[in-house]
Amino acid sequence: MIGSIHYLQNNTVVVISGDEEITYVFASFGERFVARLLDILIVVISSICIPLIGSWLYFALQQSGPLQATVGQRTMDIKVLSMDGQKINFGQATGRYFGNYLNIMTFCVGYFLFFTNDKSQCLHDIVSQCIVVREVSRKKITVVEEYKIVVNERQ
């Protein structure tokens, strides 16, 4: 089955992939803010040893990895998805990382875009075609095939 994504009202996103239907809500500004603070703390400590490359790889490898989230994001139970509901690739994760510099260069206006759009995206999310979500529910989808019963008639 090919996956699909449905953006519903009330900040809800439903992703159907394989035999699962996963319901998410967009991560709140507070969740994203706390996750960012935790990640900055980790990056600052690691950047003492490896400048810029360390922080870029920290974000890009984790967000494009199997868990789709940094340590801070996992702590807040949020993760990053592409606009089609799938895992983001390394290029998108790299775009998100460097897109944060656009937020800074616009005097943080890029972060405030979060409050002005229906998908709760900051500038770096828009540029990299990503959404940040928190999973609400997950359920298995059972596919039942319909069978047409043909009755042979005698004449």
How is this fold's topology laid out?
Layout (H helix, E strand, L loop, with lengths): L3 E5 L3 E6 L2 E7 L2 H19 L5 H11 L7 H5 L3 E4 L7 H16 L3 H4 L10 H6 L1 E11 L15
Antiparallel strand pairs: 1-2, 2-3, 3-5, 4-5
Helix pairs in contact: 1-2, 2-4
Describe the structure.
There is one protein chain. The chain is an alpha+beta fold and 155 residues long. Helix content is 39%, strand content 21%. It has helices at 29-47, 53-63, 71-75, 90-105, 109-112, 123-128; strands at 4-8, 12-17, 20-26, 79-82, 130-140. The chain has a five-stranded antiparallel β-sheet. A hairpin with a 3-residue loop joins strand 1 and strand 2 (12-17). Helix 2 (53-63) crosses helix 4. It is globular and about 55 Å long.
Which descriptors apply to this entry?
155 residues; alpha+beta; five-stranded antiparallel beta sheet; 39% helix; globular
Structure in a nutshell:
The chain contains 6 helices and 5 strands; from the N terminus they run βββαααβαααβ. The chain is of the alpha+beta class and 155 residues long.
List the secondary-structure elements in sequence, H or E. EEEHHHEHHHE
Q: Cα distance, first to last residue?
A: 43 Å
Number of strands: 5
Determine the structural class based on helices, strands and strand pairing: alpha+beta
Proportion of strand residues: 15-25%
Mean pLDDT: 88
Q: Count of helices?
A: 6
Show unreliable segments: 149-155
Oligomer: single chain
Largest sheet: 5 strands, antiparallel
Q: What value does the Rg take, in angstroms?
A: 20 Å
Taken from the alpha-carbon principal axes, the silhouette is: globular
Helix content, binned percent? 25-40%
